[in-house]
Design brief:
Strand order of the largest sheet: 1-2-3-4-5-6-8-9
Radius of gyration: 19 Å
Bound molecules: ligand G3I
Shape: globular
Number of helices: 14
Low-confidence stretches: 16-21
Mean pLDDT: 94
CATH architecture: Alpha-Beta Barrel
Largest sheet: 8 strands, parallel, barrel
CATH class: Alpha Beta
Helix content: 40-55%
Oligomer: single chain
CATH topology: TIM Barrel
CATH superfamily: Glycosidases
Length: about 350
């Protein structure tokens, strides 16, 4: 997707005005190349002034970190909790931001009534389709893109044996995409995964799946590269992998970028982190169909990393106090440097 002229012009305008003030947001910098810059948000944190102001000022897209997951929206069968997701959508739209819906069909964060319900394959298919219709239908017209299916593959490129796969086989992906398209024909529909940002069995499995979906005329618009990286080891072939997915005729998005540092995070590792964030941004700019970059959180104090990777942290562009780390200036420069 060539950057839309209007978006670029608006972005440049924002860049110019902000630049004159000596500061420019990550969202405005990305918009200068016709792309968005987003982050995963926790609606509960929007009560905190610093977090709210940072989210409002820096982002042109938001993703609910957990608020739209099945266990959150339907903790008991037929009992829906939309408040948090509604709050996030309202915040985003009040600030002119896109919303990436996350995620309709995943093996994780499912409510116990579903996973322990002893449902038949047919019942699971009906439950999955009904869930998609309910959630994508509720937000029809409000969502720019959905992560319709999240993490369908395991590290060796085989199918993850989720309850969805066990019930419907590989075809669950097409069923989910078709249901999402029926619920919201204007939303961009993505399959999203991690460990697919570099050539290997998992990347090739996702590539082959998307190629097959396109051949079968299944509605799919994009591939989400989660991009949970370790500082100093971003995949050198990321640009080539982006181009490979784009060659299938789909958009590419970096959907969950964070760059974890083995703690303590000293100046050298923060500078390497800045280089790595800039590398990812340059890879996106070098891929015409790369539509944007989303980090998985904004400030280090709210990152999932320390809980899941002991001894690691400081993975996000802003520190615990909401101060920009070197990564912020590096990404702005990478978004706005002359050339693509
Ligand atoms: O909501 C409960 C709360 O009631 C309870 O008091 C608390 C303590 O037990 O747990 C809360 O649930 C937590 C949930 O986040 C909401 O905060 C879960 O324990 C915790 O495991 C869950 O972690 C999330 C993780 O997905 C689950 O796998 C992270 O916040 C979230 O950032 C992470 O996001 C995923 C993406 O969706 C998909 N890609 C990978 C990424 C990282 O795992």
């Amino acid at each position: 997707m060539a950057p839309r002229i209007a978006t670029v012009v608006l972005g440049l305008a924002a860049l110019t005005s902000a630049g004159e003030a000596g500061e420019v947001s990550l969202g405005a910098a990305a918009a200068a190349s016709g792309r968005y810059f987003g982050a995963a948000l926790d609606p509960d944190a929007l009560d905190e002034k610093l977090y709210r102001n940072l989210a409002a000022a820096e982002l042109t897209s938001v993703t609910p970190e957990n608020a739209m997951k099945w266990e959150e929206v339907e903790p008991a069968r037929g009992e829906f909790h939309w408040d948090e997701a509604d709050a996030l959508v309202a915040f985003a739209h009040a600030h002119g931001q896109k919303v990436r819906g996350h995620t309709l069909v995943w093996h994780s964060q499912l409510p116990p009534w579903l996973t322990q319900g002893q449902f038949s394959p047919r019942e699971l298919r009906d439950l999955m389709v009904a869930h998609i219709a309910a959630e994508a239908g509720r937000y029809k017209g409000a969502i720019y893109a959905w992560d319709v299916v999240n993490e369908p593959f395991t590290e060796d490129g085989s199918w993850r044996k989720s309850i969805w796969y066990e019930a419907m086989g590989p075809g669950y992906v097409a069923i989910a995409l078709r249901a999402a398209h029926a619920a919201d024909p204007d939303a961009k529909l993505y399959v999203n995964d991690y460990g697919v940002e570099t050539d290997g069995p998992k990347m090739r499995a996702l590539h082959d799946l998307v190629a097959q979906l396109k051949r079968d005329g299944v509605p799919i618009d994009g591939v989400g590269l989660q991009s949970h990286f370790v500082v100093g080891s971003t995949p050198a072939d990321l640009p080539a992998v982006m181009a490979k997915f784009a060659s299938l005729g789909v958009d590419v998005a970096v959907t969950e970028l964070d760059l974890r540092i083995r703690l303590p995070a000293g100046k050298p590792s923060l500078l390497t982190q800045a280089d790595d964030y800039a590398f990812v941004v340059r890879a996106c700019r070098a891929t015409p169909r790369c539509v944007g970059v989303t980090t998985w959180g904004i400030t280090d104090d709210r990152s999932w990393i320390p809980s899941f990777f002991s001894g690691y942290g400081a993975a996000l562009p802003f520190d615990e106090a909401g101060k920009p780390k070197p990564a912020v200036a590096a990404m702005i420069e990478a978004w706005t440097a002359p050339g693509r």
